[in-house]
Amino acid sequence: VQEPEEKRIALELLETEQAYVNRLHLLDQIFYTELMKEAKNGKTVPEEVVKMIFSNISSIYQFHAKFFLPELQKRMDDWSCNPRIGDVIQKLAPFLKMYGEYVKNFDKAVELITVWSEKSPPFQELVADIQKRKVCANLTLQHHMLEPVQRIPRYELLLKDYVQKLPPESPDRDDAEKALEMIFLVAKHSNAAIAEMERLQNLWAIYQRLGLEDDIVDPSNELIKEGPVQKISTRNNSTSEKYLFLFNNMLLYCAPKVIQVGAEFQVHLRIDVDGMKVRELKDTQFPHTFLVSGKQRTLELQARSGEEMSAWIK
């Protein structure tokens, strides 16, 4: 007798979950535990570094090993009298939000492994030693760490497939569709959280370069473009080095600070985007020049090239 398609997919979910829990066990119970033990003995790297590398992997491991895998196993054992997994996945979905933290931290974690492997030979040796074990299957720590990052998209694909293959009258239809919707939202949430965090980090870095002027620190701002320009002074036919930050709502016209303590730039002028006009100036003496006029005042600026001028105007 041919197994129904949806059962085949549910079994694949169970099998990949089992393999995934083994991978989490390796990350949390072997890599993390052993590296932490050596860090505590003061032999390899600071404990803080190990914590930063592994982020919240322990919570993720506990959740899958103690809850999700056993629940899924129970469902598959009872399949013949109760063919459903939708309810279990609905219980799983809200917990997947904890992946946001792990995923967000991933690039930093990989960077820390690289940096500390160079700085601390004992750390590098211990990692290499664990990687040689059979359980690692000739793969690096970084490779194993990528697995949780890829797990949520995998759930989404399997569940999509499962819902498509379910017969219309299946008792699991409503639950499975609702579960898919929830997983879809979590996947979106995790990607959006990363993008939002990167935006805020970049924004904060820019505010620090500007000396955190109160009236411009606004978390809803978005940086569109930044870069050096020459300010043309028509009075004495000379140019001076300036720097522009263009946000969605304002243009900051700055001067590089001579003494680099704290801020990198001094904000000289803020022009609101609302009501601002920009046009090219055909000036033979100063090529690539454009005019920015706002309610506050008008600036004659020179870009380094024609392309750069067009980019600013755009």
Automatic annotation (TrEMBL):
Pfam families, alphabetized: RhoGEF (PF00621), SOS1_NGEF_PH (PF22697)
Record-annotated membrane-spanning stretches: none
Ranges of residues in domain PH: 222-314
CDD domains the UniProt entry points to: RhoGEF
BP-aspect Gene Ontology terms: cytoskeleton organization; filopodium assembly
PANTHER family reported in the protein's UniProt record: FACIOGENITAL DYSPLASIA PROTEIN (PTHR12673), FYVE, RHOGEF AND PH DOMAIN-CONTAINING PROTEIN 2 (PTHR12673:SF82)
GO CC term, one of those recorded: cytoskeleton
Name of the protein in question: FGD2 protein
GO molecular function per UniProt: guanyl-nucleotide exchange factor activity; zinc ion binding
Major localization listed first in the record, in broad terms: cytoplasm
Limits of the DH domain: 5-193
Subcellular location field: Cytoplasm, Cytoskeleton
Alphabetically ordered keywords of this record: Cytoplasm, Cytoskeleton, Metal-binding, Phosphoprotein, Repeat, Zinc, Zinc-finger
